[in-house]
What does this fold into?
Amino acid sequence: MKLFVYGTLKEGYALNHVLSKSKKLGEYITKKKGFMMTGFWFPYIFEKEGSNYSIKGELYEVDKDDLRNANRIELGAGYEFKEIDKDIWGYVYPKKIDSKSLNIVTNKDKKYYEWRNFNDMRDL
It folds into this structure.
């Protein structure tokens, strides 16, 4: 199964160790549009009607044990496990959250949101 991650499960972030048995396939931008991203300590993506933005993250061929552990964290935090693109699954928050955040990078040319690399935060 392919798992799309876009925040703390990404390589170099606090919870990436959860995917230690999984194979990272590389960076990925969702083909599906209609998302919004926000968050301060960790990101939320949610579906937003009228949005023409995708989400940039990473794609993993996920190990079943890693998936079980990721589900415990993400579903426990209130996210839903959804098919984001054909045969690609990820965690989507079920409701709109209105906060703006400096931790979100908006690429207006390519129309995607991305969780900021914390090493880049020194430049703010």
Summary: The radius of gyration is 14 Å.
